[in-house]
Structure formats: C-alpha cells, structure tokens
Input
Amino acid sequence: MFTKETYQKRRDLLKKQVNSGILLFLGNDECGMNYTDNTYHYRQDSTFLYFFGSDYAGLNAIIDIDENREIIFGDELTIDHIVWMGTQPTIKEKSAAVGINETAPAADLKSYLEKAVKQNRTIHYLPPYRPEHQIKLFDLLQVHPNIAAKNASVKFINAVVNQRNYKSTEEIIQIEDAVNITADMHLAAMKMAKPGMKESEIAAAVQEIAIGAGGQLSFPVIATINGQTLHNHYHGNTLKSGDMMLIDCGAENGMHYAGDMSSTFPVNKTFTQRQREIYQIALNSHEAAIAELRPGVKFKDVHLKAARTIAEGMKDMGFMKGDLDEAVQQGAHALFFQCGLGHMMGMDVHDMENLGEVYVGYNGEAKSTQFGLKSLRLGRELEPGFVLTIEPGIYFIPELIDMWKAEKRFTDFINYDKVEEYKDFGGLRNEEDFLITENGARLLGKPIPKTIEEVEAQRS
Ligand code: GLY
Ligand code: MN
Output
C-alpha cells in the first residue's frame, strides 16, 4: 500500500470536485467458481483500491461530503472464516491504514443510505460492472439492474477519471514494475517457443512469471499462432515451422498496477519473406505513432497517423490503391487494422473501462461509430501523466475479407485479388507502454526485441 496520506489526499480532492452529497464505493466480494468455498482469484475493485487501499473482500465505503464523514463498512471475520482462510487485520486496522477512523458493521450501510434518501440527499454511485454490484444497488437504493448503469453519477465518474487518468510518481514506479515483469514474460516466450510445442505451454510459462513476481495476470494470456483473432484465448494448437507466434500478455503487480505488451516472432529462427514485409509495415506504423506522442496531440490523430502508415505500406505491396487520405478517412484500412491504436493503462489494463470510455478516453466527446475507429478506446488530447499503450497491428481475417469482398466494399481502395493471396497469413502486432511527459513521451519498462533483427537475434 501507499502511505495513508496518499489515500487521504485522493479523497480530499474527490470531495472538492464533487462538492456535495454522498459518494458510495462498492468493494468487490469473493465469487464462487463452482461452489461457494472454491472462489475465483480475488480482485478488489480498482476505484475502491485507489481511494481506500484495502485489498479485502466484504467492504463498502461512503464519503459523506456534506457531513464530512468517511466510513468503511464491513464485518469482522468469524472463527469459521479464520479456520478456512486465515486471519486478517480488523476493520478498524484496515481503515486506520488509509487514514479512516470511522467504521461500522456491514448492515449499517443500508440504514445510513435509507436515512439519506428520506432526507432527499444525493447519493452518487459508479456504474456497476458485476452482478454483485447490481444486487447491492438494488438492495441499498432500490435501483433496478436495468437502469443502474444509466443512472450512475456522471459527476462522480468524472471526478474519479480526473484523478486516476493522471498518474503520480509513485504510481508510475508501480506501473513500470508491472511492465518490467511483463517484459520478462515476453522474453521467456521468445526464448522457449519451438516447433512441436503447444500454445498452452507458452501461456503457462508466462503466467508463472507473473505469479512468481508476486502478482497476477492483468488479463488472460493471448499466446497464439492465430494472431488474426484479436483477443484469442484458445491455447490448444501446436506450433509448426513457418508459423508466427503472437503473445499479448501483461502482469498485474502486487500493488495492482498493470503492464500490457504484445510481441510477434517466428516459430522458426527467422521470419519468412512474406512475414518480414508485413511485420515491417506494422513496425513502421508503431514508430510513426510513437513519434507523435506529446501533450496537446489528440490520440485519435496519432491513431490515424498509424493507420495511414499501414495504408501506405499496404499500397506499396499492392493490397491497397487509390487516394490514401480518402481511404483512411473512409476507414478502408480497417480491413487490415480493425482495432484501436491503444488505450489508457493503470490499475486496470484498459484503465477505468468500467466507468465509460467516453469519459476516460474522450473527455465526454462522442466516439466515432465507423468500423475500426469505433474500437479506439482513447481519442482525447494527451496530457502529462497519461499512461497508454501503442499497439498497431495487421490482421488478415478470412471472414472479414470474404464479407467486404462480397459486399464490394471499398473497391476503389482495396485490391481483393492480392488480399486473397494472403488470406491464410494470420496477424501480428507489437505493443509497448508509454508515459506522456511534459515534452513528449517515455517508454515504460525495459524494451523487448522489436525490430526484425532484434527478434531474430533473440530466437537464435
Ligand atoms: N493487450 C490487451 C488489450 O489491449 O486488450
Ligand atoms: Mn493493450
């Protein structure tokens, strides 16, 4: 945990920003996997962690701004809990560690809120992302699950986003720690992969590194020879000579900060000529994007620059044709680059996606609905303190190619005969994490092999 002053300062700023009412923070509970006592890996809610630090199930909290009270609600462990799961600090101790003196039994939260409702006071809550949050909101405030997200407090969301988007020095140290573990995961995968191995063996090895470093995964591992599927969690294939392996994985360190990197390398020691050519286009796009990173630049424009660089490479190879400004503006490049260039990263790998991309990544502006751009999670003007990923890729998705071709989509810009020749190519991407600084951007963590020469050197 950080010192209690960190949490106190965060809550003080939040109180100033929201100004009145009661802020309700729902902590996460344990969740049974197949029966109650066999639980999924426990993960506290990130906003709860950010303001209350406490990494334990069964807690909720309020900040009553009008009455200047901060209360953590929870019950002490029973002897049965202690026998089964071990002991924990008391609620008072958990609260004191983050500068909170007032605690109450879990059941008192409902009566506190009922009294406030009777007094017509405003109770701010965040959008629920777990069924347990929906049930709590229904129980505490009689908000039906169908309307709970819609009725969440935009003022509260914006106040949280306006703090969590700007990473402090002590947070950046934690993120960089997570990214360094993430780099080790990729280096291990690059070293071990060989023909005949199963994807699952590589997925297991990278997970071992994350857990061995004292944390967890920041999201389920992608370790696949079918990189054309953007989020492919299937690990049943055997690596063959001539395949490319795409790894997208990250560590969450012990302080619950995320790393997120992707690498693509040949299962053989060297890339084939086809693989080299496409890899180089994605790498050019990656470097072009990095060169744009600085305060004041809109990330949407960085994304479009990366898209334009891919389109140029694809035109040089004969996949695309015509006016590339027009092609990118209309979204024709999205046949090969269907996703966003990157996203915010912090305690969540897609930071605060539960609060809404429009608030986190667009500062309240509407997102594009165009195929490709609609998947861009971050579009706003960059500011110092933002931490984000850069992850352009090139993907040949047979079903998408068939669909666009049948619909005669973008025939002015796409040469479908050439695309057909690469329908079995697969997909590739590299991904790195950056901090926006006062003058530009800084790569977080230790670099991993990225150029063709660096990757092949790592494989030999
Ligand atoms: N690297 C995982 C993701 O961005 O979704
Ligand atoms: Mn990512």
Q: What stands out?
A: The longest strand covers residues 244-249. The radius of gyration is 24 Å. The first helix runs from residue 4 to 18. The pocket of glycine (ligand 1) is lined by residues 219, 248, 260, 343 (CB under 6 Å).
